[in-house]
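User: Fold this, then the next.

Assistant: Folding the first:
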Amino acid sequence: METISRRLMLATSTSILRLALAVPVYLLLTPFVLDRLGKEQFGVWSFATVIGSLINLSDLGFKNSLVFHIARTTERAGSTRSLVIAGTRMYAMSLAVLLGTIWWFRNSLLGLFAVPVALRADGEFVIAAALVAFALRLLSMPLQACIEAHENASYSNLTMLGWLLANTLLTVVGLAFAPTLYTMGIVSVIGNLLVVIALYARSRRYLSSDGADTAVVERVPYRSLVSYSGFAYAATVCVMLREPLYKTFLAQGAGMSVVADFEVSYRLALQLVSFFASPIAGAFAAIALLADRSHEIEKLVNPLIGAMALGLSLACGFLFYFAQPLITWWLGSNAGSAGHLVPLLFAALAIYYSTELVYKTIEASGKPWFTAVNQCFALLVTALILFASRSEVGARGVVWAALCGAFAFSILNLIALRILVPTVTLMTVNKLLLVLLPTMAVIGLKHWVSISTEAGAAIYGAYALAQIVVAQYSGIIDLRALMHRLVAPQLRSPIS
C-alpha cells in the first residue's frame, strides 16, 4: 500500500510539473497563434479538437479496460504482452471504420461547423491532419495503458511534457515562417508521432515476453475486455460529444468569432482545472489494485479529494475577481468575451472534477456500467439546457449547459457512492459544503456588489486565508502531510 501511495504521489507530482508549464506556455502561445492566423483561421483550427473528439469515439472504452485488466496481471509479462496486442488490434479495427466515415462526410462536417466558403480547402486539410494526428495518438493507447497499469503514470506525464515543449517549439518556428493552417496540421502530426515513439520505448520493458507465443496471445479474455469496454465506451462517447455540441451550437448561432473566443476560454479553463485535478493521474489503476481493501482506498483517496476541492475553490474565487483584467492584458484587442467566459467555464469544470475521484472509485470497484449511466445523464442535462437556451445571445447558453451538466454529474456520483460502494466512505457532503459555500458567497458578493480591484484583492486574500484554515482544522486537508508526500515521493520497491 505504501509503495502504491508513493507512486501515485509521484504521478501527481509529475502531473503538477507538466501542467505548471502547460498553463504559461498556453498563455504565451495563444496570442502568438491568434496574431499569426487571425480569428477566422484560428476558429477553423479549433475544429481540429472537435475532429479529435470524434476520433476518440473509436476508443470504445478500451483504455480503461486494458488498465483494469493489466493492473491485475502485472506479475505476468506474457499476459501483459497479450493484452497490449489484443488492445492494438481492437483500436486498429475501430479506427479504420471511424476514420473512413469521418473523411467520407468531411464536406457535411464543414457545413455543420459553418466554415466560410473561402476557408473550405483549409478546413478540409485541418480534418485530414487531425485524422492522422489523433489516429497515431490512439494507436499508442495500449502502450500508455500498459505503462499506467504498472503504476508508472509519471512517465506518461513526462512524455506529455516532452510533447508540450516540442509542439510549442515547432509551432513558433513554423508559424514564424509560414503562418497557415497547413503549418499547424504538420506540427500536430509530428508531435503525436513523437508521443508514440516515447511510449513504445518505455513499454518495451513490460512487454518482454517470458515465453509468450501465438497460443498465449490467443487466450486473451476478449469477452471480459469487451464487456468492461462497452460501458466505458458509452461514457467516453458522452464525454467526447460535449465539446462538439458546444461548438456546433455556437457556430450555427453566433459565428466564427464567438467560436474563437470560446476556444480560447475553454482551453484555458481546461488547462487550469487540469492543474488542480492532477491527483487523478494514476488513481484509477491504484484503486483497481486496492479494490477489496476499503480502508486503504479511503486512506489513499480522501486526502486527494480534499486537496482538489480546496485548490479548485480557491482558483474559482480568484478567476471571478481577476480574470477580466488579466485576460484583457493577456490578449488585448483579441480578448473578446474571454474574460467573462473563463471563470464561468472554470466553475463548471471544477464542479465536474471535484467528484471525479468518487467516479473513478465506483468504476474501479467493478461497476463500469455506472460510468455510462452518469455520463449519459450529464450529457442529457447538457443537451436539454442547450436546447432550452437556443435563443440566448453568444455563449451564455453554452455556459448554463456546462454548469448544469457538471452539477448533475457530481450529485449523482455522491449518491451512487453511498449505494453502490457502501464500504467506502470518501469526502462527506458536509465537508464539501465547507469548501463550496464560502466560495459561492465570495463570488456572489463580486457579482452583486461593485468592488474596486484593490478592495477585491483584500476580500479575496481574507477569503483564501479563512478557507485554508477551515480546511486544515476540519480535516478536509492535512497540508503538512500532503506537501511532504508531493515533494518527496521515493520508489524503493515494486508494487506491493
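Now the next one, as you asked:
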Amino acid sequence: MDQLLLAGLAILSAGFMLHAVCTVINRVRLRSVRMSWGNGRLAGQSGSFWIYVALIGMGAGMFLIPEEPDSRLVSVATIWIGMHGALASSLTGRVFVTDNGLVRSLNHPSGMIAWYQVTDYVVRDKRGKKEYLVIYQKYDGGSRFGEVQPCSRFAITVPERKERTFKKIVSCKLGKSIDKTVLPTGDLRTVT
C-alpha cells in the first residue's frame, strides 16, 4: 500500500485522538454539572456522531474482507478514527447546565454562558418540546466599566423529561433578577 496513504491515516488518527482527549478533558473540567442532555435530533445525537458510527461499521466491514495485510491496517485506522470522532461528537453535542451557567459547546468558549450574563429568556413550545431563547450580554474583558455590550441569543431545546428540572434551575438562578417572559399565543397582529 502507498506510504503516503498510511502516513495520512497516521496523522488523521493522531488528530482525532487528540481532539477526543481534549474534549474529554474539557468535560472533566466542568464543575457542578446539574444536568445534561444530547442536543441532536436523532436519538439525542448529532449527525456527525452517526457518520462516525457508520465509519466504524465500514472499518469493521473492511476488516472482515481478507485481501492484503495493509487493508487490515487501514480498517483498524478507520475504526480508531471513528471511535474517537464519535466520542468527541457525543460530548460536544450535549448541553450542560452547571451551577455557574449554561454550556452549549464544550470546545468553544463562545458556547459557555455564565448565569450573570443572562439578561432575559423566553420560553416557547416547539414540536412538543420547550425551547428557551436565552438573551445574554457578551463580556469581552477589554471594555471599560459601564460600557454597554451587545446582546446575543441562543436557543436551547429542552427534552420533555428534563424540562421540569431545568425550569427549577433557571428560576432558582435567574428568578429574582428576571421576570419570566412567555410568548403570547395567537396572532401577534391582533395585539397592535
